[in-house]
Write a structure and sequence with these properties.
The radius of gyration is 20 Å and the shape is globular. The chain has 378 residues and is an all-beta fold.
Length: 378
């Protein structure tokens, strides 16, 4: 989107008759210590705090917050700490911000998912075998490239911290097909930025380096479906819809020609795009990195244009019916190691919860409790 030093923040637009009423959860990427739950008028009605930082979070059905913290620069032996989304821990906070569960594994990053059995899926980096790293195709080479690239590993952790499942992506990827974009480096292979489960328990992955999304059989570890090269450009946040389709935020930084973002819905049975949202003009909607999208119960789609901190809701007919610019800036400013064009109010993703969501039942959501905060950011 266009950016101005005088651009408004907070609620920009709201059409109640066409919106999905609820509460929107968002956090400030890289440097914030709060997660904010806002109402449809853009007022904070609850917030959580974690001194380790909250880079991304979502609300569990029990009302607790599951989150990814910031990083203290932890690294795999022989590797510099990867840029972006590396975390020290996954924490679960109760409504009053008390830590009730945590997982601390080496090189946690990006995404996580609480499973119905109470276990948690986590995403980690690990060093790949050197001989396999040398076989990976694509990317540009740099003098400080490691002999062992970092690869993505999915781990399932029990409530007591025991790893009960371990899936190494490079053992199942076809190296002749999983080719790194020529504008990306070779310190890591795929850069998985999303991990969620489908309706039958398989997991859905997103690989930024190779512009690929896929569904992995959680029993065999093999890919059931892969799609993206030639159609996607460094996408984020695919999600499995009730109709069996997949919704994804296609960032678009390395398209041929003009860079623009879009949100698309794909039918994985025939790889057809059945719905697409673009800006008007297309370059008015763009986020180089992060970002997300989710389908709401009324058929609308909530979109997080991550880099500029813009969250908005569109109808099936692509009308914007709710729009909000995150006014909460990073308490650390912009990370100097981050890519150009990253604003201090960036958001990784956003989520909307209906008033009858189980995690909100019996909770005090009166924005007057945060009257001073809301006055400051209104």
């Amino acid at each position: 989107m266009g950016w101005s030093l005088h651009h408004k923040t907070g609620l920009i637009h709201y059409a109640p008759q066409h919106s999905f009423r609820g509460y929107t959860l968002l956090t400030t990427n890289r440097g914030g210590t709060h997660a904010n739950l806002i109402d449809m008028e853009g007022k904070v009605c609850h917030r959580w705090h974690a001194s380790e930082g909250i880079n991304y979070a979502y609300l569990l059905a029990n009302g607790n917050l599951l989150l990814r913290t910031a990083s203290n620069g932890r690294s795999v032996e022989g590797h510099p700490a990867p840029l972006g989304a590396v975390a020290d821990a996954i924490l679960e906070l109760d409504w009053d911000s008390n830590v009730v569960w945590e997982a601390r594994l080496p090189m946690l990053h990006h995404d996580f998912e609480r499973l119905p059995n109470g276990n948690t899926l986590l995403l980690c980096w690990e060093a790949m075998p050197a001989e396999l790293s040398s076989q990976v195709l694509g990317g540009y080479r740099a003098a400080d490239d490691p002999d062992q690239m970092l690869g993505d590993v999915v781990k399932e952790v029990s409530p007591i911290g025991e790893v009960v499942y371990d899936w190494k992506s490079w053992e199942y990827l076809d190296l002749a097909q999983a080719i790194i974009c020529p504008l990306e480096g070779r310190k890591e292979f795929t850069h998985q930025n999303a991990l969620t489960v489908t309706g039958n328990g398989d997991f859905l992955v997103s690989y930024r380096q190779t512009s690929t999304i896929g569904v992995v059989d959680n029993k065999t570890g093999s890919f059931k479906w892969e799609w993206g090269p030639g159609f996607l450009s460094h996408q984020h946040n695919p999600s499995y819809l009730d109709n069996g389709n997949i919704l994804v935020f296609d960032n678009g930084p390395h398209r041929r020609g003009v860079s623009y973002s879009r949100v698309i819905e794909i039918n994985p049975t025939d790889d057809q795009i059945i719905w697409e949202y673009l800006g008007d003009p297309p370059i008015s909607f763009y986020s180089y990195h992060i970002s997300g999208c989710e389908r709401l119960a009324n058929g609308n789609t909530l979109i997080a244009e991550g880099a500029p901190g813009r969250v908005f809701e569109v109808t099936r007919d692509k009308e914007i019916v709710w729009e909000y610019i995150n006014p909460f800036t990073s308490e650390k400013g912009v990370d100097p190691s981050a890519s150009p064009g990253i604003y201090p109010n960036a958001v990784f993703r956003a989520h909307r919860y209906s008033p009858d969501y189980s995690g909100l039942q019996g909770k005090d959501l009166d924005p007057d409790r945060f009257r001073a905060l809301n006055a400051l950011y209104s």
